Amino acid sequence: MTLRSVPIVDRVTDAFFALDTDFRFTYLNERAETLLKRSRNDLIGRVMWDEFPHTVETQFPDGFHHAMDEQVPVSFEVYHAHLETWFEARAYPSETGLSVYMRDVTERKSQETSLAQHAAAVEAVHDAVVTLDRNREIVTVNNAIEKVFDTERSELVGKHVETLTQLAGISDEHAVEIGQAITDVDVGNADKRRLELPFSDGYGNDRIGEFQIVPIEDDVATVAGVVRDVTDRHEYERIITSLHEVTRWLLESDDPEEICAIAVHSGSDLLDLPLSGVWLLDEEHGYLEPVAGTAGAHDEFGGLPRFNPNEGLIWDVFEAGSVERFDDLGTVDDLYNPDSPIRSEIIAPIGTHGVLMTGSLEPHQFDETDVDLISTLVENTRAALDRAERERVLRDRTDELERQTERLESVANVLSSDLKQQLSTVADTLEDRNEAETESGNVNGSDIKTDDWEFPLAEDSVTETLDRAERLVDDVREFARNAATVGTRSRLDLEDAIETALERSRLDENRVIVEQAATLRADTDRFVHLLETAFDDAAARADGTVTIQVGLLGFDATDDSRGFYLLDDAAEIPPAAHEQVLEPTANSAGTATDRKTSIDGLGLALVRAIAEAHDWTLSVDNGENGGTRLEIRDVTTLEKQG
Locate the PAS domain: which residues (predicted)? Predict the structure, then answer.
């Protein structure tokens, strides 16, 4: 290198240095000094490998030796770890050594890396991405574009964007919207634009796409379009909206079975769940009873089973209280029915009311979205059942208040007629006696003879009359009690209760025949009062002695309502009066004299009140050979003995 050429080399923008045949520095320009962070004075005459030992492990030695030995120019890119710099090196050999030009390409390599990473990211995303130049021609597309539209990128790159909108089946009106959005972003009128439009994929399926148009910095492309398939999201929003409408239907019903039917069929229609059913807890018997099912479930299984405690996944999930998804029942142990064709299912508790189950004949048919939607459906169903339960309780309370009002009105009638009559009789008797004493002139009655005055109550003494009044007051008090005041129910022996009732009644001893020993759970005092009143009713209808037969009901295979009956041989209550004698009217309490159906107190009306307080039912009928037959049913705790 001549001295004349040095100033020119010094002015080049690339770093330049010269090496002799022993790889000693013979020259460095200013840019080389800056790049190598060493001065000319430090490096001239020194071997490159000694001054920069880190370069020994790079492409420099191989490249420079190859250029020198073969006398051919070489170029390569190398990363200098010590300098944390990427270099592009070009070496030109001569007889005296090498002329080396080096350029810092760190920024370019960083951009290339970013672009490569960006390209890899674009290819990896599920969204379809397309880039356009200023002429609206397609520069690049990613794999998602090829998959969505079932095409090759070679069919799109270089074509006008209209090629893609036509391939997507986008209407002319919406294509104009896309074109305007691209223009707005390209000329800077908007930072980005977003559109939701219908399109068709490459397989003819109607979809909804979210189109986002954004600017990009690229040597060729100026705008990128990102298409995200939001069909599932739209469908989810549609279903949620529909479920809100279903909720309105659910809350309009107060019938639990109707509510469950709405839930099941809503799941079938909205969520495409054709194999579904709802089970509600039968609190009395403690099992899950099927109350609603889809037509598909009935067709597939011929009906839904009942689940007792600890039977099957349905009971387990109900007890656990949280929604469960089973992707493959083939891997689940202890199935209720191992031969069931159902392979996957979701079981969702409806609060404490029961469960909803939906299944599929294929494994892995449900995802978290299905779980979310079913959870929403069962939560709405739970709210509807809670409301129905509250309204039922309110109705029951209202009915009970109405019954209580009627009961109190009846009590008032009884008190105003029967009790008044009993006390009036006593008062009249005493008045007659006082008048007799006055007429005789002896207030103390010491000179009155029994032959001169006959006691008006020939058949009943005053004491008996007052006893009858006291019994009436007791019956009124018993009748006026609310059903909720039933005391603790304990297990009692039917024969023992009958014996106690006989001692308190007006029925002769040994006049009750018990066919079968039995036990039941009841409020002992009130149950004995029931029997006592029934015995007194029979005694009041008898001309002489009366016999009562007590038998059990509901133990026959054809009759599942358990209870017992009392059949007497007294004068029968006429069929037309069967309902009348159960009402707490004056005629049922002892004032009827036209037929023998009267007793002291409220009679069979009181028997029914005590029965209903225990949630039992009372009916009156006639025996096959005459007499009256009282049947008390729904005594679920009644059990035979012996």
Answer: 8-46, 114-159
